[in-house]
Amino acid sequence: MVSNGLALIYHSQYNLELPGHIFPAHKYSHLYNRVKRDPVYASFDILPPKMAEEHDLELVHTKEYLDDLFSYDHTARTMYSELPLNRSIVESFSYGVGGTILATELTNKHSFAFNMGGGYHHSFPDRAEGFCYLNDIAIAIRKSRESFPNRKAVIVDLDLHQGNGNSYIFQYDDNVYTFSMHQGNIYPKKEDSNLDVHLEPGTKDDFYLSSLYESLSRIKKEFDPSIVYYLAGADPYEDDSLGELKISMKGLKERDKIVRKYCEEIGAPCVITLAGGYARDFRDTVEIHFNTIAAFGEK
């Protein structure tokens, strides 16, 4: 593993104003400001990504879907998104994809590369879903194969919701291992991951963390990746407005440390993305995401 610590990626275009919408699309700028106020991380260079190019998006998404998306047309391909569809939205997602592509490139120099956006794990090749128009993780994995054709990747998805888009996209790809640990009785319609852990409502720290540890131990025996993609969703939190898991702030910090330790043990760099987070107190969502940065930034 390379040993140059943590790289941070952010673009102001990640932010959206969605008044009254449950998706807190302004959390990105609040997280950026939280980093800039911190005595440790304020001095870190935060790298801006480029907007993903169409040929990169076509590594995963169909031309028909992209035509609808970039025409801002409400069609059978775009209608399953729960977000508005306009130029600023599409540009925001394109920059988010660019951030995960850049994070992947930076793992050539850094042990950990943190895109302060991304994690759009519900989008499918031919359609939008949930709060996701473009699948940044899948695109970044396919893009990296231009330089590393046989690279093996594991997706560790710890968002509240199953990463159904990634599970579908990589279901026949032996070089990608999909792992999703999520609340089992809620959205979305489930796809088959290589490893799914369906958690019951009310799950607390001890069971959650032991399940994560056991799952990563199993993956170590079954799969040998050269890169890890970690979707560090803030929504398993006990006060999240969309979920019924009861994971404390402390438990989520420990979760992040377990994932970091797994990466260090297998000697693989890690790309981290934010994914979801809908805490009743918006400040909790920002703090959970910041804690993930701190977990991967510690010496």
TrEMBL record:
What GO molecular functions are on record for this protein? histone deacetylase activity; hydrolase activity
For this chain, the family text in UniProt reads:
Belongs to the histone deacetylase family.
Q: Which UniProt key words apply to this protein?
A: Hydrolase
SUPFAM superfamilies given for it?
Arginase/deacetylase (SSF52768)
Lineage here is: Bacteria, Pseudomonadati, Spirochaetota, Spirochaetia, Leptospirales
- Identify this protein by name: Histone deacetylase
**Per the record, a Pfam family?**
Hist_deacetyl
Q: Which InterPro entries match?
A: HDAC_classIV (IPR044150), HDACs (IPR000286), His_deacetylse_dom (IPR023801), His_deacetylse_dom_sf (IPR037138), Ureohydrolase_dom_sf (IPR023696)
Protein's GO biological process? epigenetic regulation of gene expression
Q: Which domain of life is it from?
A: Bacteria
Species whose genome carries this gene: Leptospira idonii
